[in-house]
Design a protein that fits this description.
Layout (H helix, E strand, L loop, with lengths): L5 E2 L1 H8 L6 H8 L13 E2 L1 H15 L7
Antiparallel strand pairs: 1-2
């Protein structure tokens, strides 16, 4: 079944290969497209937003490792 929205820091971070303990820094400092519906809510993210974010991360950093 297709997931419309990922729920929880663990599922979101697993989807992008990051540690769930770092979700606050990823959202605030690195623009990870995830949100909460309130201060005590559960983290949520759309799969297509996460795919776009990981591609942007790749494009931003790939030149650091590609030798011409």
């Amino acid at each position: 079944m297709y997931s419309i929205c990922l729920k929880g820091a663990r599922d979101i971070c697993n989807a992008v290969g990051e540690n769930p303990k770092n979700i606050n820094d990823l959202v605030r400092g690195h623009g990870l497209p995830a949100w909460k519906r309130g201060p005590k809510g559960t983290w949520r993210a759309l799969p297509e937003d996460l795919q776009r974010w990981i591609r942007e991360q790749r494009d931003r950093h790939i030149s650091d490792y590609v030798f011409r």
